[in-house]
Amino acid sequence: MNLSIVTINYNNKKGLAKTIESVTNQEFKDFEWIVIDGGSTDESVALIQDNLTHIDYWVSEKDQGIYDAMNKGIKASTRDYILFLNSGDFFILNNAVKLMTNFKYTEDLIFCNIQIRSKKEVYQQINSSDPKQILLDRMICHQAILHKRSLFTHVGLYSLDHKIADDYEFLIKSLFKYNCTHNYFPYCFVEYDDTNGISDFDTNGTQLQWERLSILKNYFSEYLVNKVTQQESKIDTLLKIKDVHDGLLKSNIIKCALWLITLKKLFSIKRDK
Length: 273
Description:
This protein has two domains: 3-220, Alpha-Beta Complex (Spore Coat Polysaccharide Biosynthesis Protein SpsA, Chain A), CATH 3.90.550; 228-272. Helices cover 47% and strands 19% of the residues. The chain is built from ten helices and nine strands. Strands 1, 2, 3, 4, 5, 6, 7, 8 and 9 form a nine-stranded mixed sheet that branches. A hairpin with a 4-residue loop joins β6 and β7 (122-125). α7 (166-177) packs parallel to α8. The model has no long low-confidence stretch (mean pLDDT 86).
């Protein structure tokens, strides 16, 4: 497998520096690196120019948002597979690219696991071997996917119809409408920075859910979408109950009550015997 890495940036010099360090520290150097900057007014462009020996193609110009920039990166790429590693994202291993290029897979989409840094925690998200099922429940970060470049010719580039979820629509369209091939590699290579991006759930969660449901309605029947919405409502209710439950467990009175209930059950079991 030969690889193009596409990095999107806009006024995020600090995050871009982290990404550049990650890419330039890769032990395996046989990959293509494309940097698309959206006309940054901070010092991002100077940072890019300081690293031109590592970058195969770059441009800094105004665009229509992240997906327009990603489309520019796709058009500029020449390798068989594309990985989107945007400013702030980074490889957690210095041999990540080497491991990826050793893949013998030939499918349209190769899903991997990903490490996510939110405002509250750092955790790994497991993207199992059934992406269709996952997508009916949540999004899959594009940083966790190796995209075959020819897939964008077959399916089309990212639409610019949504602010946050055009990558979600691309996956829905690719997997459900075009039945593209896919595989799963159960390892984690990338940490995705979700602390200040457009898909940050704390900031844009309502917009994200609205866009995702709008996409599902466009591709599936109203009945299925309503089922998904009902399921999400149940999950939200359970999460709220869990929060209340966690808060109650901190109360010593509740702990004592639970202890007494447990003792009562144990004595009841003994009597039954």
